[in-house]
């Protein structure tokens, strides 16, 4: 099929996992996953290195695509600060998406008190971002 499409001038490219201009970070148990699009391999590496300094207990999965033509929506320090807020609250099920000055966060937390504390910590970690959250309490 690819040869047929190529013969008629249609190029088939896989869709990017994350559209340009976004950074996604997720915590699942003992893994931290990073995805997004970075301007360069150097920018991608800066974010990965900043996150690696936070934890030795978590496996870091890097799915950031370099050379995408757009910078990440937050600095490496801000990305690490957001992730530190999550790890400091012992959240093991979290997803955050940063795009155009906005953080959309979802998490499973133990109780409403911890949800409020995590919300405050995320807002403090990156004061320039508008934060929307959808936290589910398990207790």
How would you portray this structure in words?
The protein has 139 residues and is of the alpha/beta class. It has one domain (15-137): hypothetical protein tt1634, CATH 3.40.1520.20. It has helices spanning 2-7, 41-52, 76-88, 112-125, and strands at residues 22-28, 31-37, 59-65, 93-99, 102-109, 130-137. Strands 3-2-1-4-5-6 form a 6-stranded mixed beta sheet, with helices on one face. Strand 2 (31-37), helix 2 and strand 3 (59-65) form a beta-alpha-beta unit. Helix 2 packs parallel to helix 3 (76-88) and helix 3 (76-88) packs antiparallel against helix 4. The longest helix has 14 residues, at 112-125.
Identify the notable features of this structure and list them briefly:
hypothetical protein tt1634; single chain; six-stranded mixed beta sheet; 32% strand; 4 helices; alpha/beta; disordered N terminus
Distance between the termini: 52 Å
CATH topology: hypothetical protein tt1634
Query: Radius of gyration in whole Å, from Cα?
Result: 17 Å
Tally of contiguous helical segments:
4
Helix content: 25-40%
Order of helical and strand elements? HEEHEHEEHE
Which structural class do you get from the secondary structure elements? alpha/beta
Q: In the CATH hierarchy, what is the class?
A: Alpha Beta
Could you give a short account of the major beta sheet? 6 strands, mixed
């Amino acid at each position: 099929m690819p040869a047929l499409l190529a013969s008629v001038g249609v190029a088939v490219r896989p869709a990017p996992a994350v559209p340009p201009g976004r950074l996604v970070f997720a915590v699942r148990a003992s893994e931290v996953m990073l995805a997004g699009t970075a301007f360069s391999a150097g920018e991608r590496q800066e974010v990965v290195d900043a996150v690696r300094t936070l934890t030795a207990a978590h496996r870091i999965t890097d799915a950031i695509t370099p050379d995408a033509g757009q910078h990440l929506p937050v600095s490496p320090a801000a990305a690490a600060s957001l992730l530190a807020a999550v790890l400091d609250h012992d959240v093991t099920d979290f997803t955050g998406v940063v795009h155009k000055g906005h953080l959309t966060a979802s998490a499973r937390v133990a109780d409403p008190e911890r949800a409020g504390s995590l919300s405050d910590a995320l807002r403090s970690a990156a004061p320039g971002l508008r934060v929307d959250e959808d936290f589910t309490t398990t207790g």
